[in-house]
Amino acid sequence: HSSSVNDVAFNNAGNINDICYSVDDNGNLYQFDLNDFNVIGFIPANDDENANSVNIPKATSVFIGDDQTIFLGYSSGSLKSFTNDLSIKLFDIPAHRGNVNCIYVYVKYILTGGEDGIVRVWTRKSHELIIQIPAHHKNVRSVLADLNKPNIIYSCGEDRELLCFDLKLNKRLNTQSIPNGYLCGIAQKLDKDNEIISVGVNCNLAVWDFYKTEPVQEIILNEKMMAIKISHSGKYFALGSSSGELWLFKLPECEFISKSQGHSRQINNLNWSPDDKQIVSISNDSSICIWNVYI
């Protein structure tokens, strides 16, 4: 990459450990082979031959669906989808005003969170809008569906709020908020409690049970955390900091294991390989770091 790298994803459905996908401010998607670090696939910013080469939008988010379809979000508000071999564009729809900051794909629907503070839900087959949720007053930073109840979705934003919403009831179930800073990322624990962990800027790491009004656990990190991902085993989670450090913790007690410097600027996101043996982090410094995990 020659510009800020904004998101990274693995093909978890295909259980492919040695290939990852990343997107950048130049509007490009790269497919990397982690065995030799070569680029093996590429979607350029101007994938549409009729596109204007002036003011090409940034590529802001990427997600690989359970059918191995690739979903891309852009600063123009567009949501695009491509086949796994990158050869065919499946659709291109206007999803938000401003950045499509985050994407989450479930069997029957697609979740997107935007710079406009809105969470939108789209059908998988026809990519039509199902519901629009005015979830936040500022940037939506992360969206996900509940692991056991996919009608329940979560989102967090720069307005300091963490939202729980029921798609079946079309109803906000609960909203948690933090007193300072803003939230950047959320992840759900894989244990019996399925609690939500949140991290952000100028705030503590917090573990939430939505049936309670306060966090069930808080950890002071004294660091701005931009991203969180839980391992597929559910035993560990990794954080990416504004200083370019990768932090590793053990669950269920959120026990600190280690931290390491890999980037010269903030980590924008990170992801675990399907076998949990590697973590890939991406940064504003245009770099990608591959971390081998020996635990």
Quickly list its features.
295 residues, mainly beta, four-stranded antiparallel sheet, 27 strands
Characterise this structure.
This protein is mainly beta and 295 residues long. Helix content is 0%, strand content 54%. The chain contains no helices and 27 strands. The chain has strands spanning 5-11, 16-24, 29-33, 38-43, 59-64, 70-74, 78-82, 89-94, 100-105, 109-114, 119-123, 129-133, 140-145, 152-157, 161-166, 171-177, 182-188, 196-201, 205-208, 217-219, 225-230, 236-241, 245-250, 255-261, 267-272, 278-283, 288-292. The protein has a 4-stranded antiparallel β-sheet with strand order 1-2-3-4, with no helix packed on it. A 4-stranded antiparallel β-sheet has the order 5-6-7-8, with no helix packed on it. The model has no long low-confidence stretch (mean pLDDT 94).
Question: How would you briefly describe this protein structure?
Answer:
The protein has 295 residues and is mainly β. The protein has no helices and 27 strands.
How many helices? The count is: 0
* Rg over CA atoms: 18 Å
> How many strands appear in the DSSP assignment?
27
Pairing-aware structural class of the strands and helices? mainly beta
Termini separation comes to 30 Å
Helix content: under 10%
- Low-pLDDT parts are none
Major sheet: arrangement of strands: 1-2-3-4
Q: What is the ordering of alpha helices and beta strands?
A: EEEEEEEEEEEEEEEEEEEEEEEEEEE
Mean pLDDT: 94
